[in-house]
Amino acid sequence: MANHAQMKLGRPFIRYDARQLKLARYTQALPPPPVAVDWMKGITDFGMMLNGPDPSNPPFAPDGLGDCTIAGCAHAVQIWTANLGRMVTIPDSAILAAYEQWDGYSAGDPSTDQGGVELDVLNAWRKNGLAGHQLAAFADPNPANLEEVRQAISLFGGVYIGLSLPVTAQKQDVWDMGSPDDPDAVPGSWGGHCVYVPKYDANSFTCIPWGAPKQMTLAFWLKCCDEAHTLLSDDWLSAKGSPAGLDLMNLQADLQVVTR
Q1: Got the DSSP string for 173-222?
Q2: Domain 23-258's class?
């Protein structure tokens, strides 16, 4: 049985912005997504990206940091590059630098290990890049609309999401909702977490928490996923091009207005 009780989370809250772009505005001309998509290329170890205990990795916080918002970005880069030729893993030194610059962490001061806000991290990534990998744009599917989410995964290699995890998720091999009468099964009773999701089928989604694939049921997704962002990377778009029917020109123009 899984035991994630000692793992770090790191999404303290959701920042809402009424101007934030909605993916559905730019995908109206697209066909329905496939029944199943898997961008993981059979990889089972993506690395903690400092988000979990790793005593073999001094001096980079052997007990782990609450940097899941940065780890999710790095796992996205791994998925994109693995499907474009050869997987690139961003070094821990660059992960740490991003956590310091984007989320306010100060190495050696545990009180500053407060995690990060997904919207702030994505805006910082778009403006500054991450170890040479640029985020061209991002837009939000409705996490409750599974077709929109699947569309985002199938077209762009995954989605970057926020989860309000229940305590019961600490010891589940597959994340699923427990009894509604169990206080440990209440979404958010453990805390907020950011993960990248590169795979789905008709009955589940698969994410990458703490460097390893984790399946979640649709019931778990619908209860616990409360934030989702489609990431349009320069890596992906330059190699695969803009999907036919995606209104990328208006998306990028609208993003410029939002981020002024």
Answers
A1: SSB----TT-GGGSTTSSEEEEEEE-EE-SSEEEE-GGGS-EEEEHHHHH
A2: alpha beta
Q: Residue 84 class from Cβ within 10 Å (0-12 exposed, 13-18 middle, 19+ buried)? A: middle
51 residue type, one letter: N
232 three-class SS: strand
* Rounded-to-integer distance, Cα 88 and Cα 77, Å: 7
Q: Is 56 helix (H, G, I), strand (E, B) or coil?
A: coil
Tokens of 71: 């780890």
3-50 per-position pLDDT tens digit: 999 999 999 999 998 888 888 888 887 888 999 999 999 999 999 999
Look up residue 193 and give its two tokens. 């977490």
Residues 251 and 205: beta-carbon distance below 8 Å = no
Non-local (6+) Cβ contacts of 104 within 8 A are 112, 114, 116
Other Cβ atoms less than 10 A from the Cβ of 88: the count is 16
Whole-number Å distance between alpha carbons of 148 and 7: 30
Judge residue 167's burial from the number of C-beta atoms within 10 Å of its C-beta, 0-12 exposed, 13-18 middle, 19 or more buried.
middle
Please provide residue 194's backbone torsions phi and psi, each rounded to the nearest 5 degrees.
-115, 135
Sign of the alpha-carbon dihedral angle for 71, 73, 79, 85: negative
Instruction: Map residue 109 onto helix, strand or coil.
Output: coil
CB atoms within 10 A of CB 163: 30
* Distance (Å) of CA 41 to CA 10, 86, 234: 27, 11, 20
> Is pTM beyond 0.85 here?
yes
